[in-house]
Amino acid sequence: MTDWTAGYVADVGYTHGYYVELNPLRARLALLQAGYVAPASGGTCCELGFGQGVSVNMHAAASPGQWWGTDFNPSQAGLAQSLAQAAANNSHLSDEAFDAFCARADLPDFDFIGLHGIWSWISDDNRSVIVDFLRRKLKVGGVLYISYNTQPGWASFAPMRHLMTHHANTMGASGQGIVSRIDGAIEFADKLIETNPLFTRANPQVAERLNKLKEQNRHYLAHEYFNRDWHPMHVDTMAQWLEPAKLQFAGSANYLDYVDALNLSKEQQELLAGIEDPIFKQSVRDFMVNQQFRKDYWVKGLRTLPALERLETLRQEKVLLTTPRPDISLKATGALGEATLTETIYNPILDVLANHQVQTVGDIEQSLAKQKVDVNLGQLLQAILVLGGLGHLYSAQEGTHVSHSAKHTQALNRHLMQLARSNQDINVLASPVTGGGLPVSRFGQIFLLSMANGKKDPKQWADDAWQWLEMQGQRLLKDGQTLQSKEDNLKELNEQAATFATKQLPILKSAKII
Description:
By secondary structure, the chain is α/β, with parallel strands linked by helices. The protein is 49% helix and 14% strand. The chain has 22 helices and 16 strands. It is globular, with a radius of gyration of 24 Å.
Protein backbone atom coordinates (compact mmCIF):
# COMPACT_ATOMS: atom_id res chain seq x y z
CA MET A 1 0.00 0.00 0.00
CA THR A 2 1.32 3.47 -0.91
CA ASP A 3 1.84 5.81 2.05
CA TRP A 4 0.23 8.99 0.75
CA THR A 5 1.45 10.91 3.80
CA ALA A 6 5.13 10.55 2.78
CA GLY A 7 6.02 10.57 6.48
CA TYR A 8 4.16 13.81 7.23
CA VAL A 9 1.76 13.86 10.20
CA ALA A 10 -1.77 13.44 8.86
CA ASP A 11 -3.83 11.96 11.69
CA VAL A 12 -4.38 15.40 13.26
CA GLY A 13 -5.14 18.54 11.29
CA TYR A 14 -2.88 21.57 11.08
CA THR A 15 -3.83 24.67 13.06
CA HIS A 16 -6.15 27.27 11.52
CA GLY A 17 -3.59 30.05 11.54
CA TYR A 18 -3.35 33.02 9.19
CA TYR A 19 0.14 33.97 7.95
CA VAL A 20 0.42 37.56 6.78
CA GLU A 21 3.79 36.92 5.10
CA LEU A 22 1.91 34.96 2.41
CA ASN A 23 0.19 38.19 1.35
CA PRO A 24 2.01 39.33 -1.82
CA LEU A 25 1.27 42.96 -0.90
CA ARG A 26 3.50 42.61 2.17
CA ALA A 27 6.50 41.85 -0.03
CA ARG A 28 6.44 45.33 -1.58
CA LEU A 29 7.55 47.23 1.50
CA ALA A 30 10.20 44.64 2.36
CA LEU A 31 11.74 44.70 -1.12
CA LEU A 32 11.67 48.48 -1.33
CA GLN A 33 13.30 48.75 2.07
CA ALA A 34 16.03 46.37 0.89
CA GLY A 35 16.55 48.59 -2.19
CA TYR A 36 15.03 46.38 -4.88
CA VAL A 37 12.32 46.73 -7.51
CA ALA A 38 9.02 45.68 -5.93
CA PRO A 39 6.49 43.50 -7.76
CA ALA A 40 3.26 44.91 -9.15
CA SER A 41 0.01 44.04 -7.37
CA GLY A 42 -2.27 41.29 -8.62
CA GLY A 43 -1.21 38.60 -11.04
CA THR A 44 -1.23 34.86 -10.52
CA CYS A 45 -0.26 33.39 -7.15
CA CYS A 46 0.28 29.95 -5.66
CA GLU A 47 0.55 28.50 -2.15
CA LEU A 48 2.13 25.07 -1.78
CA GLY A 49 0.99 23.25 1.36
CA PHE A 50 -1.83 25.60 2.38
CA GLY A 51 -2.85 23.68 5.52
CA GLN A 52 -6.45 24.46 6.46
CA GLY A 53 -6.57 27.03 3.64
CA VAL A 54 -7.17 30.11 5.79
CA SER A 55 -4.36 32.21 4.32
CA VAL A 56 -4.91 31.21 0.70
CA ASN A 57 -8.61 32.01 0.93
CA MET A 58 -8.03 35.34 2.66
CA HIS A 59 -5.68 36.37 -0.12
CA ALA A 60 -7.76 34.93 -2.94
CA ALA A 61 -10.83 36.82 -1.70
CA ALA A 62 -9.12 40.08 -0.70
CA SER A 63 -6.69 40.65 -3.58
CA PRO A 64 -7.06 40.93 -7.37
CA GLY A 65 -4.73 38.01 -8.11
CA GLN A 66 -5.93 34.53 -9.03
CA TRP A 67 -4.77 31.87 -6.59
CA TRP A 68 -3.82 28.23 -7.05
CA GLY A 69 -2.62 25.80 -4.43
CA THR A 70 -2.49 22.30 -3.02
CA ASP A 71 -2.34 20.50 0.30
CA PHE A 72 -2.00 16.73 0.28
CA ASN A 73 -4.34 16.27 3.29
CA PRO A 74 -7.87 15.78 1.86
CA SER A 75 -9.60 16.90 5.07
CA GLN A 76 -7.71 20.19 5.02
CA ALA A 77 -8.24 20.61 1.27
CA GLY A 78 -11.96 20.01 1.82
CA LEU A 79 -12.20 22.86 4.32
CA ALA A 80 -10.14 25.12 2.05
CA GLN A 81 -12.43 24.37 -0.89
CA SER A 82 -15.55 25.08 1.19
CA LEU A 83 -14.14 28.50 2.13
CA ALA A 84 -13.30 29.19 -1.51
CA GLN A 85 -16.82 28.23 -2.56
CA ALA A 86 -18.34 30.52 0.08
CA ALA A 87 -16.20 33.44 -1.14
CA ALA A 88 -16.64 32.64 -4.86
CA ASN A 89 -13.01 33.74 -5.12
CA ASN A 90 -12.19 31.76 -8.29
CA SER A 91 -9.27 29.96 -6.66
CA HIS A 92 -8.07 26.50 -7.69
CA LEU A 93 -7.33 24.39 -4.61
CA SER A 94 -6.57 20.67 -4.69
CA ASP A 95 -5.40 17.82 -2.46
CA GLU A 96 -2.63 16.65 -4.77
CA ALA A 97 0.86 15.74 -3.61
CA PHE A 98 3.57 18.16 -4.70
CA ASP A 99 4.86 15.94 -7.51
CA ALA A 100 1.39 15.57 -9.05
CA PHE A 101 0.40 19.22 -8.64
CA CYS A 102 3.68 20.63 -9.92
CA ALA A 103 3.49 18.45 -13.05
CA ARG A 104 0.05 19.71 -14.07
CA ALA A 105 -0.13 21.08 -17.60
CA ASP A 106 -2.94 23.55 -16.86
CA LEU A 107 -1.01 25.71 -14.38
CA PRO A 108 -0.20 29.31 -15.35
CA ASP A 109 3.14 30.96 -14.72
CA PHE A 110 3.14 32.67 -11.33
CA ASP A 111 4.04 36.14 -10.06
CA PHE A 112 4.17 34.94 -6.44
CA ILE A 113 4.69 31.51 -4.89
CA GLY A 114 4.50 30.96 -1.13
CA LEU A 115 5.51 28.10 1.18
CA HIS A 116 4.99 28.52 4.91
CA GLY A 117 6.08 25.78 7.28
CA ILE A 118 6.75 23.27 4.48
CA TRP A 119 10.39 23.23 3.42
CA SER A 120 11.90 21.89 6.65
CA TRP A 121 9.36 19.08 7.00
CA ILE A 122 9.54 17.35 3.60
CA SER A 123 11.98 14.98 1.90
CA ASP A 124 14.79 15.92 -0.44
CA ASP A 125 12.76 14.38 -3.27
CA ASN A 126 9.91 16.79 -2.60
CA ARG A 127 12.34 19.68 -2.27
CA SER A 128 13.70 18.82 -5.72
CA VAL A 129 10.16 18.80 -7.12
CA ILE A 130 9.53 22.26 -5.67
CA VAL A 131 12.79 23.73 -6.97
CA ASP A 132 12.02 22.41 -10.46
CA PHE A 133 8.53 23.94 -10.17
CA LEU A 134 10.05 27.29 -9.20
CA ARG A 135 12.46 27.06 -12.14
CA ARG A 136 9.66 26.41 -14.62
CA LYS A 137 6.66 28.30 -13.25
CA LEU A 138 7.88 31.40 -11.36
CA LYS A 139 7.98 34.36 -13.75
CA VAL A 140 11.01 36.54 -14.27
CA GLY A 141 10.68 39.17 -11.54
CA GLY A 142 8.47 36.80 -9.56
CA VAL A 143 8.70 36.52 -5.76
CA LEU A 144 9.09 33.42 -3.62
CA TYR A 145 8.15 33.57 0.06
CA ILE A 146 9.60 30.67 2.01
CA SER A 147 9.97 29.96 5.73
CA TYR A 148 12.06 27.25 7.31
CA ASN A 149 13.80 26.09 10.47
CA THR A 150 17.31 27.47 10.64
CA GLN A 151 20.66 26.57 12.06
CA PRO A 152 22.25 27.63 14.41
CA GLY A 153 19.07 28.30 16.41
CA TRP A 154 18.13 24.62 16.41
CA ALA A 155 21.64 23.27 17.01
CA SER A 156 21.22 22.54 20.73
CA PHE A 157 17.64 21.25 20.70
CA ALA A 158 17.76 19.14 17.52
CA PRO A 159 19.13 16.03 19.34
CA MET A 160 16.31 16.24 21.91
CA ARG A 161 13.72 16.61 19.17
CA HIS A 162 15.16 13.51 17.48
CA LEU A 163 15.00 11.56 20.74
CA MET A 164 11.36 12.53 21.37
CA THR A 165 10.35 11.57 17.83
CA HIS A 166 12.19 8.27 18.24
CA HIS A 167 10.30 7.67 21.50
CA ALA A 168 6.94 8.47 19.87
CA ASN A 169 7.65 6.05 17.02
CA THR A 170 9.08 3.16 19.04
CA MET A 171 7.82 3.39 22.63
CA GLY A 172 4.38 4.85 22.03
CA ALA A 173 1.58 2.50 20.99
CA SER A 174 0.47 3.27 17.45
CA GLY A 175 -3.17 2.89 18.42
CA GLN A 176 -2.89 5.72 20.90
CA GLY A 177 -2.77 8.40 18.23
CA ILE A 178 -0.14 11.07 17.76
CA VAL A 179 -1.32 13.37 20.58
CA SER A 180 -0.94 10.65 23.24
CA ARG A 181 2.43 9.69 21.81
CA ILE A 182 3.57 13.31 21.97
CA ASP A 183 2.53 13.54 25.62
CA GLY A 184 4.46 10.32 26.32
CA ALA A 185 7.56 11.62 24.54
CA ILE A 186 7.52 14.90 26.50
CA GLU A 187 7.05 13.03 29.76
CA PHE A 188 10.00 10.78 28.92
CA ALA A 189 12.18 13.79 28.01
CA ASP A 190 11.31 15.29 31.42
CA LYS A 191 12.44 12.11 33.16
CA LEU A 192 15.67 12.14 31.18
CA ILE A 193 16.43 15.74 32.19
CA GLU A 194 15.78 14.84 35.84
CA THR A 195 18.75 12.42 35.64
CA ASN A 196 20.98 15.47 34.96
CA PRO A 197 22.67 14.14 31.78
CA LEU A 198 25.85 15.77 30.51
CA PHE A 199 24.00 16.83 27.35
CA THR A 200 21.64 19.15 29.21
CA ARG A 201 24.45 20.40 31.43
CA ALA A 202 26.31 21.42 28.26
CA ASN A 203 23.06 22.81 26.73
CA PRO A 204 21.05 24.26 29.65
CA GLN A 205 18.56 25.98 27.32
CA VAL A 206 17.16 22.55 26.30
CA ALA A 207 15.21 22.21 29.55
CA GLU A 208 13.77 25.71 29.15
CA ARG A 209 12.61 24.97 25.61
CA LEU A 210 11.06 21.68 26.71
CA ASN A 211 9.06 23.53 29.36
CA LYS A 212 7.71 25.89 26.71
CA LEU A 213 6.78 22.87 24.58
CA LYS A 214 4.50 21.57 27.29
CA GLU A 215 2.31 24.68 27.01
CA GLN A 216 1.79 24.49 23.25
CA ASN A 217 -1.07 23.08 21.20
CA ARG A 218 -0.45 19.37 20.58
CA HIS A 219 -1.67 19.60 16.97
CA TYR A 220 0.94 22.30 16.35
CA LEU A 221 3.63 20.18 18.01
CA ALA A 222 2.70 17.18 15.88
CA HIS A 223 3.40 19.10 12.68
CA GLU A 224 6.36 21.09 14.02
CA TYR A 225 8.37 18.33 15.72
CA PHE A 226 7.09 14.84 14.92
CA ASN A 227 7.23 14.43 11.16
CA ARG A 228 9.57 11.85 9.68
CA ASP A 229 11.46 14.54 7.79
CA TRP A 230 12.77 17.46 9.83
CA HIS A 231 15.72 19.41 8.48
CA PRO A 232 16.85 22.78 9.88
CA MET A 233 18.97 24.43 7.22
CA HIS A 234 21.66 27.08 6.96
CA VAL A 235 20.74 30.00 4.71
CA ASP A 236 23.69 29.25 2.40
CA THR A 237 22.36 25.69 1.98
CA MET A 238 18.99 27.18 1.04
CA ALA A 239 20.75 29.35 -1.54
CA GLN A 240 22.36 26.26 -3.03
CA TRP A 241 18.97 24.56 -3.28
CA LEU A 242 17.37 27.57 -5.00
CA GLU A 243 20.25 28.38 -7.35
CA PRO A 244 19.00 26.08 -10.18
CA ALA A 245 15.73 28.06 -10.13
CA LYS A 246 17.75 31.30 -10.60
CA LEU A 247 16.47 32.76 -7.34
CA GLN A 248 18.34 35.43 -5.38
CA PHE A 249 17.87 36.40 -1.75
CA ALA A 250 15.98 39.70 -1.51
CA GLY A 251 15.25 40.20 2.18
CA SER A 252 13.38 39.12 5.26
CA ALA A 253 9.59 38.97 5.45
CA ASN A 254 9.90 39.90 9.14
CA TYR A 255 9.90 43.70 9.11
CA LEU A 256 11.64 43.91 12.50
CA ASP A 257 14.71 42.26 10.96
CA TYR A 258 15.36 45.52 9.09
CA VAL A 259 15.83 47.45 12.36
CA ASP A 260 19.40 46.73 13.42
CA ALA A 261 19.07 48.58 16.71
CA LEU A 262 16.57 45.96 17.90
CA ASN A 263 18.69 42.98 16.95
CA LEU A 264 22.40 43.74 16.72
CA SER A 265 25.00 45.36 18.94
CA LYS A 266 27.20 48.12 17.58
CA GLU A 267 30.10 45.67 17.23
CA GLN A 268 27.92 43.19 15.37
CA GLN A 269 26.66 45.88 12.99
CA GLU A 270 30.22 46.94 12.24
CA LEU A 271 31.29 43.36 11.50
CA LEU A 272 28.33 42.79 9.17
CA ALA A 273 28.97 46.10 7.40
CA GLY A 274 32.33 44.76 6.25
CA ILE A 275 30.79 41.69 4.56
CA GLU A 276 29.79 42.21 0.92
CA ASP A 277 28.45 38.76 0.02
CA PRO A 278 24.70 38.85 0.91
CA ILE A 279 24.35 35.15 1.73
CA PHE A 280 27.46 35.01 3.90
CA LYS A 281 26.25 38.16 5.66
CA GLN A 282 22.96 36.42 6.43
CA SER A 283 24.82 33.33 7.66
CA VAL A 284 26.88 35.42 10.07
CA ARG A 285 23.79 37.32 11.21
CA ASP A 286 22.05 34.03 12.01
CA PHE A 287 24.83 33.24 14.47
CA MET A 288 24.56 36.70 16.01
CA VAL A 289 20.81 36.40 16.69
CA ASN A 290 20.76 32.60 17.15
CA GLN A 291 18.23 32.38 14.32
CA GLN A 292 15.74 29.55 14.69
CA PHE A 293 13.20 30.27 11.96
CA ARG A 294 13.67 32.32 8.81
CA LYS A 295 10.92 34.01 6.76
CA ASP A 296 12.45 35.21 3.51
CA TYR A 297 11.66 36.65 0.09
CA TRP A 298 13.62 35.47 -2.95
CA VAL A 299 13.28 36.91 -6.44
CA LYS A 300 13.93 35.53 -9.90
CA GLY A 301 15.82 38.38 -11.53
CA LEU A 302 16.54 40.71 -8.63
CA ARG A 303 16.98 44.35 -9.72
CA THR A 304 18.39 47.19 -7.65
CA LEU A 305 16.28 50.34 -7.50
CA PRO A 306 18.07 53.71 -7.85
CA ALA A 307 17.97 55.67 -4.59
CA LEU A 308 15.77 58.50 -5.89
CA GLU A 309 13.26 56.14 -7.50
CA ARG A 310 13.19 54.02 -4.34
CA LEU A 311 12.27 57.01 -2.16
CA GLU A 312 9.63 58.17 -4.64
CA THR A 313 8.08 54.70 -4.70
CA LEU A 314 8.17 54.39 -0.91
CA ARG A 315 6.36 57.72 -0.55
CA GLN A 316 3.51 56.28 -2.64
CA GLU A 317 3.07 53.20 -0.43
CA LYS A 318 -0.29 53.13 1.35
CA VAL A 319 -0.70 52.03 4.96
CA LEU A 320 -3.49 51.61 7.52
CA LEU A 321 -3.21 51.57 11.32
CA THR A 322 -5.24 48.58 12.57
CA THR A 323 -4.73 48.78 16.35
CA PRO A 324 -6.55 51.37 18.51
CA ARG A 325 -4.13 54.19 19.25
CA PRO A 326 -4.42 53.88 23.09
CA ASP A 327 -3.65 50.15 22.92
CA ILE A 328 -0.25 50.61 21.29
CA SER A 329 2.67 50.29 23.68
CA LEU A 330 5.92 51.93 22.69
CA LYS A 331 7.79 48.68 23.21
CA ALA A 332 9.35 46.32 20.67
CA THR A 333 11.26 43.09 21.17
CA GLY A 334 14.15 41.97 18.98
CA ALA A 335 17.11 39.66 19.39
CA LEU A 336 18.61 42.07 21.94
CA GLY A 337 15.48 41.95 24.09
CA GLU A 338 12.80 44.54 24.75
CA ALA A 339 13.42 48.11 23.64
CA THR A 340 11.52 51.34 24.25
CA LEU A 341 10.59 53.23 21.09
CA THR A 342 11.41 56.93 20.92
CA GLU A 343 8.32 58.90 21.97
CA THR A 344 9.22 62.03 20.02
CA ILE A 345 9.25 59.98 16.81
CA TYR A 346 6.46 57.44 17.33
CA ASN A 347 3.81 59.53 19.10
CA PRO A 348 3.48 62.13 16.30
CA ILE A 349 3.37 59.37 13.66
CA LEU A 350 0.72 57.44 15.59
CA ASP A 351 -1.29 60.62 16.06
CA VAL A 352 -1.37 61.13 12.29
CA LEU A 353 -2.43 57.50 11.74
CA ALA A 354 -4.94 57.44 14.60
CA ASN A 355 -7.93 58.25 12.36
CA HIS A 356 -7.49 54.74 10.86
CA GLN A 357 -7.72 56.02 7.31
CA VAL A 358 -5.52 54.81 4.47
CA GLN A 359 -2.63 57.22 3.95
CA THR A 360 0.48 57.18 1.82
CA VAL A 361 3.91 57.49 3.38
CA GLY A 362 4.18 60.82 1.58
CA ASP A 363 0.91 62.01 3.18
CA ILE A 364 2.23 61.15 6.64
CA GLU A 365 5.52 62.91 5.89
CA GLN A 366 3.68 66.07 4.84
CA SER A 367 1.40 66.00 7.89
CA LEU A 368 4.42 65.82 10.18
CA ALA A 369 6.10 68.67 8.32
CA LYS A 370 3.01 70.88 8.65
CA GLN A 371 3.05 70.27 12.39
CA LYS A 372 6.78 71.11 12.42
CA VAL A 373 7.59 67.70 13.88
CA ASP A 374 11.28 66.87 13.60
CA VAL A 375 10.96 63.39 12.04
CA ASN A 376 12.83 62.71 8.80
CA LEU A 377 11.85 60.23 6.09
CA GLY A 378 14.31 57.59 7.27
CA GLN A 379 12.88 57.67 10.79
CA LEU A 380 9.34 57.55 9.41
CA LEU A 381 10.10 54.51 7.25
CA GLN A 382 11.72 52.71 10.16
CA ALA A 383 8.70 53.45 12.35
CA ILE A 384 6.38 52.05 9.68
CA LEU A 385 8.46 48.87 9.54
CA VAL A 386 8.39 48.53 13.32
CA LEU A 387 4.63 49.16 13.56
CA GLY A 388 4.08 46.71 10.71
CA GLY A 389 6.34 44.14 12.32
CA LEU A 390 4.40 44.45 15.58
CA GLY A 391 1.10 43.88 13.76
CA HIS A 392 -0.26 47.40 14.32
CA LEU A 393 -0.02 48.57 10.70
CA TYR A 394 -0.70 46.95 7.30
CA SER A 395 0.01 47.91 3.72
CA ALA A 396 -3.09 48.94 1.75
CA GLN A 397 -4.16 48.28 -1.82
CA GLU A 398 -5.13 50.62 -4.61
CA GLY A 399 -8.78 51.68 -4.63
CA THR A 400 -9.60 49.72 -7.79
CA HIS A 401 -8.37 46.53 -6.15
CA VAL A 402 -10.48 47.27 -3.06
CA SER A 403 -13.62 47.62 -5.17
CA HIS A 404 -12.86 44.43 -7.09
CA SER A 405 -12.36 42.34 -3.95
CA ALA A 406 -15.11 43.68 -1.68
CA LYS A 407 -17.89 41.31 -2.81
CA HIS A 408 -15.65 38.28 -2.25
CA THR A 409 -14.49 39.37 1.20
CA GLN A 410 -18.06 40.13 2.26
CA ALA A 411 -19.19 36.65 1.22
CA LEU A 412 -16.25 34.94 2.92
CA ASN A 413 -16.64 36.97 6.10
CA ARG A 414 -20.35 36.22 6.33
CA HIS A 415 -19.53 32.51 6.10
CA LEU A 416 -16.82 32.76 8.76
CA MET A 417 -19.12 34.71 11.09
CA GLN A 418 -21.67 31.91 10.80
CA LEU A 419 -18.97 29.38 11.70
CA ALA A 420 -17.96 31.48 14.73
CA ARG A 421 -21.31 30.74 16.36
CA SER A 422 -20.07 27.22 17.16
CA ASN A 423 -16.25 27.38 17.24
CA GLN A 424 -13.25 29.67 17.51
CA ASP A 425 -10.95 27.98 14.99
CA ILE A 426 -10.60 30.94 12.60
CA ASN A 427 -9.90 34.27 14.31
CA VAL A 428 -9.42 36.40 11.23
CA LEU A 429 -11.62 38.11 8.63
CA ALA A 430 -10.76 39.30 5.12
CA SER A 431 -10.09 42.96 4.32
CA PRO A 432 -10.16 44.17 0.71
CA VAL A 433 -8.13 47.16 1.90
CA THR A 434 -5.14 45.17 3.19
CA GLY A 435 -5.47 42.40 0.62
CA GLY A 436 -5.57 39.77 3.35
CA GLY A 437 -6.74 38.94 6.85
CA LEU A 438 -7.07 41.01 10.02
CA PRO A 439 -7.49 39.53 13.51
CA VAL A 440 -11.11 39.40 14.75
CA SER A 441 -11.96 37.26 17.77
CA ARG A 442 -14.79 34.74 17.84
CA PHE A 443 -17.07 37.08 19.75
CA GLY A 444 -16.09 39.99 17.55
CA GLN A 445 -17.29 37.94 14.61
CA ILE A 446 -20.55 37.06 16.39
CA PHE A 447 -21.12 40.76 17.17
CA LEU A 448 -20.58 41.56 13.48
CA LEU A 449 -23.07 38.84 12.55
CA SER A 450 -25.65 40.47 14.79
CA MET A 451 -24.95 43.80 13.09
CA ALA A 452 -25.37 42.19 9.68
CA ASN A 453 -28.74 40.90 10.86
CA GLY A 454 -29.90 44.42 11.72
CA LYS A 455 -28.97 44.65 15.41
CA LYS A 456 -27.42 48.05 16.20
CA ASP A 457 -27.11 48.03 20.00
CA PRO A 458 -24.10 46.32 21.64
CA LYS A 459 -26.52 44.90 24.23
CA GLN A 460 -28.33 43.09 21.42
CA TRP A 461 -25.02 41.70 20.18
CA ALA A 462 -24.28 40.36 23.67
CA ASP A 463 -27.73 38.78 23.88
CA ASP A 464 -27.20 37.06 20.53
CA ALA A 465 -23.78 35.77 21.62
CA TRP A 466 -25.24 34.37 24.85
CA GLN A 467 -27.99 32.66 22.86
CA TRP A 468 -25.43 30.74 20.82
CA LEU A 469 -23.38 29.84 23.89
CA GLU A 470 -26.37 28.66 25.90
CA MET A 471 -27.72 26.59 23.03
CA GLN A 472 -24.43 24.62 22.93
CA GLY A 473 -23.86 24.42 26.68
CA GLN A 474 -20.80 26.69 26.40
CA ARG A 475 -19.60 29.23 28.94
CA LEU A 476 -17.08 32.07 28.97
CA LEU A 477 -13.72 31.92 30.66
CA LYS A 478 -12.47 34.94 32.59
CA ASP A 479 -9.17 35.07 34.45
CA GLY A 480 -8.91 31.30 34.06
CA GLN A 481 -12.30 30.69 35.70
CA THR A 482 -15.47 29.46 33.99
CA LEU A 483 -18.41 31.84 34.38
CA GLN A 484 -21.32 29.62 35.32
CA SER A 485 -24.35 31.87 35.69
CA LYS A 486 -26.29 33.53 32.90
CA GLU A 487 -25.88 36.88 34.65
CA ASP A 488 -22.08 36.63 34.82
CA ASN A 489 -21.81 35.53 31.20
CA LEU A 490 -24.06 38.33 29.98
CA LYS A 491 -22.17 40.90 32.04
CA GLU A 492 -18.88 39.83 30.44
CA LEU A 493 -20.40 39.72 26.94
CA ASN A 494 -21.86 43.20 27.37
CA GLU A 495 -18.46 44.54 28.44
CA GLN A 496 -16.82 42.90 25.43
CA ALA A 497 -19.50 44.22 23.06
CA ALA A 498 -19.16 47.78 24.38
CA THR A 499 -15.37 47.68 24.00
CA PHE A 500 -15.72 46.17 20.52
CA ALA A 501 -18.08 48.97 19.45
CA THR A 502 -15.76 51.75 20.56
CA LYS A 503 -12.35 50.27 19.70
CA GLN A 504 -12.45 47.58 17.01
CA LEU A 505 -15.52 48.55 15.00
CA PRO A 506 -14.19 51.86 13.58
CA ILE A 507 -11.05 50.05 12.39
CA LEU A 508 -13.02 47.22 10.78
CA LYS A 509 -15.10 49.82 8.95
CA SER A 510 -11.95 51.51 7.62
CA ALA A 511 -10.65 48.11 6.52
CA LYS A 512 -14.05 47.50 4.82
CA ILE A 513 -14.52 44.24 6.67
CA ILE A 514 -18.05 45.55 7.26
